[in-house]
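Hi L.,

As promised, L-histidine N(Alpha)-methyltransferase:
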Amino acid sequence: TQFEQDLIEERPAGRLRDQFRADVLTGLRQRQKVVPARWFYDLRGSELFEEITRLPEYYPTRAEIEILANQCGEIGAAVGEGRAVVEFGAGSATKTPLLLDCIAPAAYVPIDISGAFLREACKPLARRYPDLPIVPVEGDFTHPLDLPDAVDGRPVLGFFPGSTIGNLAPAEAVDLLRAMRATLGDGSVLLIGMDMIKDRQVLVEAYDDGAGVTAAFNLNLVTRINRELGGTIPIDALRHKIVWNVERARIEMHLEASRDIAFDICAQHFSMRAGETIHTENSHKYDLASATQLLLAGHWTPFAHFHDSERRFMVLLARA
Ligand code: AVJ
């Protein structure tokens, strides 16, 4: 069928594709062209991100794993045993077991928008923890959700690793934290990973690696637009550009036109001048003060924090 063919060729039908098209067409009509970072993660984009996490320059993943592994006892003591762990996003094969081993959970509830991705992520965990109730929830965690019966009455621990919150502007991050607060309820605790403000060069290199993997990740967005939306963007005229925006404490990823270009997407015409950019991602960085402010605005009270040996990354605990 056409649907199966589209799946094979990665041309998703329906609502997701409509949202992608709307986001791209709206974003490229802005004075500063912009495409939301969530659209990086098609199959190839997810593979490239996995590759990024193994780059020597990309420290956040290793630093967070170091924290969870080395400070397991302290984290477990601060959180307490017997909580139902609710992970926002399909669990990562490395981080989730590290956390589960720290806290002796009563249940594990990953929430993700992609049901297929969720079910895959649950398989190795089910093998590793045969006695742990695992209850995946397919849904959009940016809005308050009902938790499954397996959680009923138990104290809950929300888990939001990876500095994923950094993709959001502070106002959006606050909305997300409030939605998580509403989902998890009274008495819950949140464990959240945030990347820290640091030396400009270390930050820029983490997003502009020598092997060009992050550049390929950034440019894959254009490949995806051309494939899924029938775009004619000349990829060879765009180059990966990283900016450290010091006022806003964020790394910005852009795609910069190396010459004047014109292209069509879904029968709409666009042009870019040489030097003009498409803003494709923000990655906000925090210190303890700004992280505390953000959590408080999101209706969470921080009560413990942990960082890696080089103070590059932090994991915070906050209570509802
Ligand atoms: C997955 C959003 C945490 O911001 O560091 C990595 C994504 N982009 N390299 C990050 C990313 C370019 C990553 N997050």
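The CA atoms of residues 198 and 312 lie 7 Å apart.

Thanks again for sending the construct details.

K.
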